[in-house]
Amino acid sequence: MVSVVQNVAIDCADAYELARFWSGVTGRPLHPEDEPGEPETQVMLAEGPILHFNQVPEPKTIKNRIHLCLRPETSRDREVERLLSLGAAFVADHRNPDGSGWVVLADPEGNEFCVLRSESDRAAAHP
């Protein structure tokens, strides 16, 4: 017997607004019954677990111990620019001169996530 991951839960101050940000990141809709002010909101991913946003009273105070890593459909650098325009904040640059590496961003509530190289970025590096 095994357990199946149902969702990835993200504690936050404003579940609906943070879910709207991640809906923009992933291009996937919010749960159809979710509305502003809801203490729990979900982003319905096409595959895999749901992103579940749970409103909590305490603020984020330290670095995440678990985070999402995104592999964009476009180039990593274009995706970083798009995510910054959605409201992400730049945290750290781990890109290497050979094109490998990743960029660390944070969502509007400070939760860090990584943007990896796209498949096309990786293919271009290894023709």
From TrEMBL:
It comes from the Bacteria. Residues 8-116 form the Glyoxalase-like domain. This is VOC family protein. Coiled coil: none annotated. The lineage of its organism: Bacteria, Bacillati, Actinomycetota, Actinomycetes, Streptosporangiales. It comes from Nocardiopsis changdeensis. Pfam families: Glyoxalase_6.
